[in-house]
Amino acid sequence: EAGVAQSPRYKIIEKRQSVAFWCNPISGHATLYWYQQILGQGPKLLIQFQNNGVVDDSQLPKDRFSAERLKGVDSTLKIQPAKLEDSAVYLCASSRTQTGGNYGYTFGSGTRLTVV
Amino acid sequence: QQQVKQSPQSLIVQKGGISIINCAYENTAFDYFPWYQQFPGKGPALLIAIRPDVSEKKEGRFTISFNKSAKQFSLHIMDSQPGDSATYFCAGETSGSRLTFGEGTQLTVNP
User: Fold this and answer.
1) I want to staple B32 with a disulfide (CB 3.0 to 4.6 A). Which of A24, A67, B93, B110 is the partner?
2) Contact list, B103 vs chain A (CB under 8 Å)
3) Residue A100: predicted pLDDT
4) A17 φ/ψ angles, rounded to the nearest 5 degrees
5) DSSP per residue over A46-75, as a string?
């Protein structure tokens, strides 16, 4: 099966600019996650979708971050305005069920964001 | 309560040696403990996982040892190979909640 697709792979923006990331999960995976991975740290969940509904966005900085999953398939994550501390890799993952279970989560290769 | 602590931060092993990475958790509600492997420029990929009702799980050269009373678990990589050089993350998960990752261990296997 095809993997989780993410674009762009790299993005460099100035602080206070806006940026958007796109994710296409594995076909049939109902659950989609966005993670933030700061260099040298483990991934941290930003938001979890079940189909097109939000399950958990408790760690999403809602004053600047937003995400949507239209029609329960593709998803976009937006940052506006960006801060220097937003420099990180943004990973999208999907799973068949609401928890990884025996199949785990399938991660995309991520988008590396650099805010200067 | 959600934290997973991982050590060491980095590890260098000779080819053929044993790599050991340790994790400790606080949240007793975790009911699934996966290990993920991440190569540079790639997302993490599920390597092996264990549920707390067993003390050990082995898949090829990879073994998880689990100590429920101590709230600790570890990954053992036997006969380590240069191709195993990657960053390894332990994690904890509860049903219906987020996957909580450790900070990661950068493993280097020298030829």
Assistant:
1) B93
2) 40-42
3) 53
4) -80, 170
5) EEEEETTEEEE-TTS-TTTEEEE-GGGS-E
Cβ proximity of B92 and B49 under 8 Å: no
Which among B46, B94, B97 has CB closest to A104? Answer: B46
Residue A23: which of A34, A37, A13, A12 has the closest Cα?
A: A34
Q: How many residues does chain B have?
A: 111
Q: Is B95 in Cβ contact with A109 (below 8 Å)?
A: no
From the list B105, B104, B99, the residue with the least C-alpha distance to B2 is B99
A53 at B interface, C-beta within 8 A:
no
Residues of chain A contacting B32 with CB distance shorter than 8 Å: 99-101
Using one digit for the tens of pLDDT, what is the confidence trace for A27-83?
988 899 999 999 989 999 999 998 889 999 999 999 999 999 988 899 999 999 999
**What six digits make up the tokens of B1?**
């309560």
- Residue that the structure tokens 């003390």 belong to: B55
How many residues appear in chain A?
A: 116
Q: In whole angstroms, how far apart are CA B25 and each of A19, B32, B82, B88?
A: 35, 12, 29, 16
Residue of A nearest to B34 (CA): A104
Task: Report CB contact under 8 Å: B43, A109.
Answer: yes
